[in-house]
């Protein structure tokens, strides 16, 4: 299933779960910052940012159905449909970009790199990328599904990728993969966390703030 079709098919039913940590974010981003939520889903994180006092907010997502849900739930938010992994904004137009549980849905290395490069392009030098995403787990259920997907793809997929019965293909990352993906940024904060998942389980994860260098 194409990503847009999958996200449209679950747009009314999924609850997204990785938490917005307001105190963590406030250490790096002032209230007047211009903030983009890349892969914003139905806008729940932007709604929380509004409650924390942030005002200059925009969210984009490839799923028109998720954006419709967001506009219904939060009519005052600026939510837009956007093609996958690309951003229709000039270079350096934001002080902060949020990327919550998006990499986990973009399982291909090259597509992840395109997406992160887009996030970097629209950030001001010195701007920050706040990322929540999932890390590899070592329990039997996860190990089994990682191995099953590797054999089904003859080892051509990254270890940690797995398929769900509802049509989703998702990825849990090694820390090494995370370091490689964000190597053009400075790491301002990196914390291992355990997150609830949108499918009712828990998973290892991380919350990180990566800063675009000034030069
Ligand atoms: C698990 S949801 C998280 C949504 C939101 N960030 C949140 O935490 O509430 C993943 C989101 O990523 C979006 N997405 C998936 N692939 C994408 C891509 N290639 N480019 C941009 N967004 C993508 C989906 O449409 C979906 O809204």
Q: Which consecutive residue ranges, at least 5 long each, have pLDDT under 50?
A: none
Looking at the structure, the CATH topology is Rossmann fold
Major β-sheet strand ordering: 3-2-1-4-5-9-8
Shape: globular
Report mean pLDDT, rounded to a whole number: 97
List the total number of helices: 7
- Could you give the count of β-strands? 9
Q: What's the story with the biggest beta sheet?
A: 7 strands, mixed
What does this entry look like structurally?
- The chain is of the alpha/beta class and 215 residues long.
- The protein is built from seven helices and nine strands.
- The chain has helices spanning 3-9, 22-26, 44-51, 64-73, 109-122, 140-152, 175-181; strands at residues 34-38, 56-61, 79-81, 94-100, 123-134, 161-163, 169-171, 186-196, 202-211.
- A hairpin with a 5-residue loop joins strand 6 (161-163) and strand 7.
- 30% of the residues lie in helices and 28% in strands.
- It starts with a helix and ends with a strand.
- The protein has one domain (3-211): Rossmann fold (3-Layer(aba) Sandwich), CATH 3.40.50.
- The strands form two sheets. A seven-stranded mixed β-sheet has the order 3-2-1-4-5-9-8.
- The longest helix has 14 residues, at 109-122.
- It binds S-adenosylmethionine.
Topology:
Elements: H1 3-9, H2 22-26, E1 34-38, H3 44-51, E2 56-61, H4 64-73, E3 79-81, E4 94-100, H5 109-122, E5 123-134, H6 140-152, E6 161-163, E7 169-171, H7 175-181, E8 186-196, E9 202-211
Parallel strand pairs: 1-2, 1-4, 2-3, 4-5
Antiparallel strand pairs: 5-9, 6-7, 8-9
């Amino acid at each position: 299933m194409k990503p847009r079709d999958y996200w449209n098919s679950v747009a009314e039913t999924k609850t997204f779960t990785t938490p917005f940590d307001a105190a963590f974010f406030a250490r790096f981003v002032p209230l007047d910052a211009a903030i983009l939520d890349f892969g914003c889903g139905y806008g729940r994180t932007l709604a929380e940012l509004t409650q924390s006092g942030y005002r200059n907010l925009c969210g984009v997502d490839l799923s028109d159905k998720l954006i419709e849900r967001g506009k219904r739930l939060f009519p005052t938010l600026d939510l837009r449909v956007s093609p996958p992994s690309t951003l229709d904004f000039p270079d350096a137009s934001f002080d902060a970009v949020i990327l919550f549980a998006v990499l986990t849905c973009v399982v291909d290395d090259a597509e992840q790199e395109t997406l992160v490069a887009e996030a970097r392009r629209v950030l001001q030098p010195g701007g920050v990328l706040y990322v929540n995403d999932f890390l590899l787990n070592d329990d039997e259920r996860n190990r089994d599904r990682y191995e099953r997907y590797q054999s089904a793809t003859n080892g051509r997929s990254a270890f940690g990728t797995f398929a769900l019965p509802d049509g989703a293909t998702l990825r849990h990352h090694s820390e090494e993969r995370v370091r490689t993906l964000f190597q053009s940024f400075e790491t301002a904060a990196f914390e291992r966390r355990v997150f609830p998942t949108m499918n009712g389980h828990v998973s290892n994860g991380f919350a990180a703030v990566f800063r675009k260098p000034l030069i």
